[in-house]
Design a protein that fits this description.
It is a single chain. The longest helix is centred in the N-terminal third of the chain and has 35 residues, at about 20-55. Helix 8 runs antiparallel to helix 14 (about 320-330) and helix 8 (about 190-215) packs across helix 15 (about 345-360). The protein is elongated and about 100 Å long. It is built from 17 helices and four strands. Helix 3 links the parallel strand 1 (about 55-60) and strand 2 (about 80). It has two domains: about 1-40 and about 180-395, no CATH class; about 55-165, 3-Layer(aba) Sandwich (abc type-2 transporter like fold), CATH 3.40.1710. Helices cover about 70% and strands about 5% of the residues. A four-stranded mixed β-sheet has the order 2-1-3-4. It has helices at about 1-15, 20-55, 65-75, 90-95, 110-115, 130-155, 175-185, 190-215, 220, 230-260, 265-275, 280-305, 310-315, 320-330, 345-360, 365-390, 390-395, and strands at about 55-60, 80, 100-105, 120-125. The protein is mainly alpha-helical.
Length: about 400
């Protein structure tokens, strides 16, 4: 055990000295979430304000009807009414961005409404990224215009508008906010945690195997009075530690980003904080531990096989896409944690993390996930040990 601890500390010291590994393992995940959330929030707030404050150029074709609609739009701030447009030309103006929207009132609109019918108003626009806000603003104005017409109709009949409302629907969504947020963001968080766990394992694995071969220090290490399996365990422990540390630091960065965001509502902030409580984080990290062990064993196998640091990078870097795929599948609506999906590596971590964050994880499913991950980790370590024992692996191309 003393020999193993000495090897572990030696490899850990070598890893910490590597600035590139240290940056990917700690600095990058710690800074990413605060910077990302600050930038996204700032841009989103700016774009929403810009869309809310924008003066919308609205083409109005009344066909001699709906004078009240003109009065309503001209009296409201944020609308510039353009009249005198032929109905057939409205689409051309929209395509040239000369107008933001066009409202075309049908012929005989006033007569139809007076007779108790439903007049037709065509609302034309071109979809843009900001148009959901612009559309909402215009539809609010149209609904207010319609409400005024309905109010006049009821007044002529001498009845109250409430007569048409026979049922008052009271909706009660009893889903806790934590569970809602957990199911909403629970698919994204494992995506980030797994990627950071993989990246945090990748660079130390490349440096501690292919890097040592390239520096020529692997021969010196092999002449020490220790077995290859002990050497492998020392390197394996460091790679597992760096992967978990990278994932943990990414969680810390996310917590800092959320708690320091001044634009987040207090109710949502409390729910997100409860999601990222110590118990939840420890449970997620416990899932990542066997996954990090699998990553470490697999990455070290490839790294020992590579002739150089550059070759190891070319072998390992494309695996990022392979890791992303099962996590992305876990984000698809309808994909649930079942006895089958609980056995699929990486996907089971994604789905189990989503359930843990939502607070709906079933102990039986969690046990299956742990069992499958631990079996995979043990098998991968055994295969890595057998691989490293081969001379042609260590001294390939040497």
């Amino acid at each position: 055990m003393k020999i193993l601890r000495t090897i572990f500390l030696k490899e850990l010291l070598d890893t910490i000295r590597d600035r590139r590994t240290l940056f990917v393992m700690v600095i990058f995940p710690l800074l990413l979430f605060p910077l990302l959330m600050t930038a996204i929030t700032a841009v989103q707030t700016s774009q929403i304000k810009k869309a809310e404050d924008k003066v919308l150029r609205v083409g109005l074709v009344l066909n001699g009807n709906a004078a009240g609609l003109r009065t309503l739009l001209t009296s409201r701030e944020g609308f510039a009414v353009v009249e005198g447009i032929h109905p057939d030309s409205a689409h051309a103006f929209l395509e040239r961005d000369s107008l933001d929207a066009a409202i075309i009132v049908s012929d005989g609109f006033d007569r139809t409404v007076e007779n108790g019918g439903k007049g037709t108003v065509t609302f034309a626009y071109r979809f843009t990224d900001e148009y959901s806000i612009a559309e909402r603003r215009l539809k609010e104005a149209l609904r207010e215009f319609e409400k005024g017409l309905v109010g006049k109709r009821f007044a002529r009949l001498g009845v109250q508008p409430d007569i048409v409302e026979a049922v008052t629907l009271q909706e009660q969504d009893i889903t806790p906010l934590k569970e809602k947020l957990g199911r909403t963001i629970g698919g994204l968080l494992p995506y980030l945690f797994v990627i950071f766990c993989f990246m945090g394992s990748m660079y130390p694995a490349i440096d501690l195997a292919a890097g040592e071969k390239e520096r020529g220090t692997i021969e010196t290490l092999l002449t020490a009075p220790v077995g290859r399996f002990q050497i492998l365990l020392g390197k394996f422990g460091v790679v597992v530690l760096t992967g978990l540390l990278s994932a943990a630091v990414s969680m810390l960065g996310l917590y800092v980003a959320v708690s320091r965001n001044p634009d987040m509502p207090q109710e949502m902030l409390g729910a997100v904080t409860s999601i990222l409580d110590p118990a939840t984080i420890l449970l997620v990290l416990s899932l990542l531990l066997p996954l990090a062990m699998f990553f470490a064993a697999f990455l070290l196998s490839l790294s020992f096989y590579a002739r150089s640091y550059k070759e190891a990078q070319s072998l390992i870097s494309p695996l990022t896409i392979v890791i992303i795929l099962p996590v992305a599948v876990g984000m698809i609506p309808g994909i649930e944690l079942t006895p089958v999906t609980a056995m699929i590596p990486v996907l089971n971590v994604s789905l189990a993390t989503k359930e843990i964050i939502a607070g709906t994880i079933a102990p039986g499913m969690l046990a299956i996930v742990y069992g499958s991950l631990l079996a995979l980790a043990g098998l991968s370590l055994w295969a890595c040990a057998r691989w490293v024992e081969r001379e042609e692996t260590i001294f390939r191309g040497g």
